[in-house]
Amino acid sequence: MRPAASPPCRRIAHALRLLPLALAAAGPGAGTAAATPQRIVSLNLCTDQILLQLVGRERIAALTHLSQDAFSAALHEQARGLPTVRGNAEEVLALSPDLVLVGTYTTRHTTAMLRRYGIPVVAVPGASSFADVADEIRTVARAVGEEARGEAIIGRFNARLAELAAKHREPRPVATQFASGGYSAGSGTLYHDIFAAAGHDNGAARAGLAGYGILPLERLVGQAPDILVGSDYRRGTPTLGNRLLQHPAIANLGAREVVLPARLTICGGPWNLDAAALLAAGGSGR
């Protein structure tokens, strides 16, 4: 005798049985690649925010639970009230989506299962530059049938970037991200392009750091940054990593601290230019 299916397996099977009925109710052509998606699920914080810019709420079946987190998501207010998921295959299948947006390196098991059952899935790589931001927007806009709206978003982004560039002054200040434990952002990161948009040089990149990683204290001091870009993540938590930020060598730099909110830097999008404007203005520090 065959063993009884586990509860998760039974729920997945039930969702799959309902899927054809839901697609039929959605209308002719629903669930096909040629149709404009009407039940879109996003399983990545960054695709959440791209999607919110491109389609109406009525076309969004669910976003991630982080989409409504004020710390992480720039568009958390816009996401409020929409259904959320945590990325389990069973809860996604139960929504009968006709398109699922995922990150390249996240929810891999769910992604594989959705594709196995014929659900259209579009994987969107994370952005490491403003050029990547435009690519991400175009990828999602094409998937949801909103290419013109995507190009309009990119056009506004580039126009504001030009406005910021017109305000640059020489000599360019040196800004260095230096967070808990010496974590920093060098070349090939969103921070690098945000700093450049603000008219600042990236001290970590000048010190030889590529990508994200640890910047040794002596290399930080050697760059003599004008601005230290801090993090708003658990700043008051007593950890060894945070103790490093109190080192006398850092205090002796005389650098001004600017805190760029995580929601403006985690994902690529127009909010990155809000971070650049904040940095250019010297920030409030908090």
From TrEMBL:
Gene3D superfamilies: Nitrogenase molybdenum iron protein domain. Residues 1-33 form the signal peptide. InterPro entries: ABC_Transporter_SBP, ABC_transptr_periplasmic_BD. It comes from the Bacteria. Residues 39-286 form the Fe/B12 periplasmic-binding domain. Keywords: Signal. The keyword Transport does not apply. This is ABC transporter substrate-binding protein. It comes from Thauera sinica. The lineage of its organism: Bacteria, Pseudomonadati, Pseudomonadota, Betaproteobacteria, Rhodocyclales.
